[in-house]
Amino acid sequence: ESCNTMDELQYSEDRIARLVDLLKPHLSPSGDMPILEICCGNGLATQALIRLGLAPLAMDSDRCELCVALKKGLMDPRRSFVLDARLLPRFFSCMPFQTVLGFMVGLIDDSNWPRWREILLAAASLAEKELLFTVYSQKEADLIAKEMEGAGWTGKVIDNQDPRGIYDQWVYKGIRAKH
Predict the structure, then answer these.
(1) Which H or E run contains 99?
(2) Please, is 120 exposed, middle or buried when counting C-beta atoms within 10 Å of its C-beta (0-12, 13-18, 19+)?
(3) Mind listing the pLDDT tens digit of every residue in the chain (179 residues)?
(4) Contacts of 121 (CB under 8 A, 6+ apart)
(5) Residues whose CB is less than 8 angstroms from the CB of residue 25 and which lie 6 or more positions away in sequence, other chains included
(6) Which of 55, 114, 147, 171 is the 20 to 30 A CA-CA neighbour of 140?
(7) How far apart (Å, rounded) are the C-alpha atoms in residues 152 and 156?
(8) Could you give the CA distance from residue 90 to residue 72 in angstroms, rounded to a whole number?
(9) Strand pairing of 153-159 and 170-176?
(10) Environment class of residue 53 by beta-carbon count within 10 Å: exposed (0-12), middle (13-18) or buried (19+)?
């Protein structure tokens, strides 16, 4: 009740459509294995997953952002939760996810990289098959790629720049390295 829902959500149809186009060739869901979206915020990027016929388990640490999306009917309350992403392995270590995604997981800089590193490594530890994280800059994507490589992922940085926007400009796509 303390969350402000008076402000209208600013949903960008263009961003959702761009994410759908980005995800189609880079996301390969199969079977009944669940998908986890970290840092879902107000659920804008989640709409792209829903439009692709997916039902991710979506989480964020900001209860007000998630609350607004729930009150607007944009998120499934049975598939959404509030949690510090660094704690994910404590609750889901026995439930692997096929794919872990995070859209606009930053802005990452030298001062907050240690915290983002913890968040991304915790989330990645739950993925059986693939990761996909979007960010604003190539520097952020390169930092993520280097860290994930050290954690056993094979990946690539994808240029997804759009001169009309600031969201999801760079992508890290990781595949679990074979042991």
Answers:
(1) strand 97-102
(2) buried
(3) 666 655 556 668 999 999 999 999 988 766 677 999 999 999 999 999 999 999 999 999 999 999 988 988 889 999 999 999 999 999 998 888 999 999 999 899 999 999 999 999 999 999 999 999 999 999 999 999 999 999 999 999 999 999 988 999 999 999 997 75
(4) 147, 151
(5) none
(6) 55
(7) 13
(8) 30
(9) antiparallel
(10) exposed
Helical ranges in 103-171 per DSSP H: 113-124, 138-150
**Taking a C-beta distance cutoff of 8 angstroms, is the pair 113, 140 a contact?**
no
* Residue pointed to by tokens 């969350």: 3
What is the rounded distance in angstroms from the CA atom of residue 155 to the CA atom of residue 41? 25
3-state DSSP call for residue 21?
A: helix
User: Alpha-carbon distance 18 to 28, whole Å?
Assistant: 17
Count of CB atoms within 10 A of residue 152's CB? 13
**Element at 57 (helix H, strand E):** strand 57-60
Neighbours of 98 (CB within 10 A): 18
